[in-house]
Write a structure and sequence with these properties.
- By secondary structure, this protein is mainly α.
- 63% of the residues lie in helices and 0% in strands.
- It has helices at 2-14, 34-37, 45-71, 73-95, 98-116, 130-147.
- Helix 5 (98-116) runs antiparallel to helix 6.
- The chain is elongated, with a radius of gyration of 25 Å.
């Protein structure tokens, strides 16, 4: 009885032949899960330049936001957070991946951390108060929200959900 159930298992989709979901594993076809075992492709040089540009742009927006939020307290804080949100959403749309948001967020965070540390004389870019704290935490929250947003569907693509 156990020999018969083993022989039948190969015909129900558990064997090594072709299946409806993944193609043939014998020969040069793409077997299910073969993308896991392939080595990753190197990114294109244009993409690397774009990611580097996003890091630099993130540092510029972080520096400008640090200056603006301190200069005009209620309106400057809102303007700085909107500029940060625009940067993160724009980097998501431009690259189409969360890595673009991460690159701009790294530049933004590096700039505000460097500006928040004081010099030995006691000078610092950020003053005491709630404004700089809201700018730092709010900007990081916006970066995380943009990084976890769903991507827009591609033109001519099917429905986003399986089975629907």
């Amino acid at each position: 009885m156990s020999g018969r159930s083993r022989a039948g298992a190969g015909r129900t989709g558990g064997g090594t032949g072709s299946s409806a979901a993944g193609g043939s594993s014998a020969g040069g076809g793409s077997a299910p899960g073969s993308w896991i075992t392939r080595p990753p492709k190197a990114p294109k040089p244009g993409r690397l330049v774009a990611y580097l540009a996003l890091v630099i742009l993130g540092a510029i927006v972080g520096t400008a936001g640090s200056l603006v939020q301190a200069a005009w307290m209620p309106g400057g804080l809102v303007l700085a957070l909107l500029a940060s949100a625009g940067l993160f959403i724009g980097s998501l749309r431009a690259t189409g991946s969360q890595l673009g948001v991460a690159c701009s967020a790294v530049g933004w965070l590096a700039a505000i951390v460097l500006l928040s540390t004081g010099r030995p004389e006691g000078d610092a870019m950020f003053g005491a108060g709630i404004g700089p704290l809201v700018f730092m935490l709010g900007g990081m929250a916006v970066a995380v929200m943009c990084a976890t947003m769903s991507r827009a569907s591609q033109p001519g693509g099917g429905p986003g959900r399986l089975g629907g």
